[in-house]
Every structure is written in C-alpha cells, then in structure tokens.
Write a sequence for this structure.
C-alpha cells in the first residue's frame, strides 16, 4: 500500500531563554482562548533535528541511546529516531503572557516546531480502571458548565440492568480540568439534592435575576 504525504503546519515553536516556553504564531493566537495558568496540556512536537532519510529508516534502537540496552522497536520506545519524528509531552502551564505559554523544562531543542496543543484529560490520556467504557458514554449529550464537563451514560438497554442497584450503576462522568470522577445514580441524586439546597439558600435578589435570565418575559 502506498501512503500519500500530507502537510503539517507548525502552530508555534519551543523557546528557551532561561525559561522554557511555547511561542504561538500570531495567526493561531485565538486558539489559546480557554487555556489557563495551571492547566495541564499535551504538546505534539516535530523533532526536526531527527528528520533525515537515514533516521526515518531506523526501526530499532537501544533505549535511552545506551548500547547496553537490547535493541527494541522504536514504537516501544520514546526515541526521537522514528519514521515520523513526533514527540508528545504532558506539561503544566505555569503562566500565560500574550502568545507565550511558560512551562517546565522539557528536553526539546530551541526552535523545535509545535504541531498541536491539546488539553490533557485523565479519562483519555491517563486511563486506569475505567468504570464506564467510552462507547457507553453519551458524548453528544455532554454539557460543559464553567470548568466542569458532564458526560452522561447512554440510556439505551437499561432494561438489561434491572439487577443493578442505584449504588452500583455509574451514571455520570465528571471532568474538572484533567481530573475525572464517576458518580453512581445514587450519588447523582444526592448531588442534585445538594445543588437544590445551595440554590435555595441564594439571596432572593439573585434568584430573581436568574429567573429573568432564563425566562425574561
């Protein structure tokens, strides 16, 4: 099978001037909207210094470039030498200044092209024991409120779950930044009751304005 080449456009570059930062190109500045200091992100870089025909043809390496380590396929390593010299880092944003993201030190060289930035999501990027399989989540019905992402479980085939108790049935995935938690149906009801109680204790003036916001007639 022949593979067609495709185009990748850098969105920024790694800079090292005593601190490590990602300088985003001006035309991609708006794509930073929604990122905050303290957020964890994934950087996808292109190790341009390793982008040679010879290095692209290397399929086995000594891990950590130590000849004492047995040869291993590059897909089982983090070596920069690979058919496509991509690198992926999970980093924390220490601060944001205009089009610059200041991060902790990484081993990428000055001027390394940044191909993409994605938020880090524990459920997808740091999977452990996943109570709710991804295919059972109702992703289109997800709601984002502030920094909280609410992902319900699909309601189909619930008739097959008659024997499952509310204490056992995982009904909702909660994401806050990269952190993920799962609520059972019982915990979901308790959360709703707690929120209603908190809402009930709001000042009357605030509740009146909230009602007007929802129904201004």
């Amino acid at each position: 099978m022949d593979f067609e080449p495709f185009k990748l456009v850098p969105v920024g570059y790694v800079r090292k001037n005593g601190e490590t930062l990602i300088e985003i190109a001006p035309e991609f500045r708006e794509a930073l909207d929604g990122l905050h200091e303290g957020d964890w992100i994934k950087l996808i870089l292109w190790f341009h210094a390793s982008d040679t025909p010879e290095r692209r043809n290397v399929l086995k390496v000594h891990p950590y470039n130590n000849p004492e380590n047995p040869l291993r396929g590059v897909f089982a390593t983090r070596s920069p030498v690979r058919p496509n010299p991509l690198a992926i880092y999970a980093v924390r944003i220490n601060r944001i200044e205009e089009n610059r993201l200041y991060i902790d030190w990484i081993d990428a060289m000055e001027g390394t092209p940044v191909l993409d930035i994605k938020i880090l999501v524990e459920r997808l990027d740091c999977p452990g024991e996943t109570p709710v399989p991804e295919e059972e989540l109702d992703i289109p019905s997800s709601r984002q409120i502030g920094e909280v992402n609410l992902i319900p479980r699909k309601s189909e085939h619930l008739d097959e779950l008659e024997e499952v108790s509310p204490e056992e049935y995982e009904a909702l995935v909660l994401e806050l930044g990269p952190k993920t938690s799962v609520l059972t149906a019982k915990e979901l009801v308790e959360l709703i009751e707690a929120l209603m109680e908190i809402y009930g204790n709001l000042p009357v003036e605030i509740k009146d304005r909230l009602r007007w916001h929802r129904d201004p007639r």
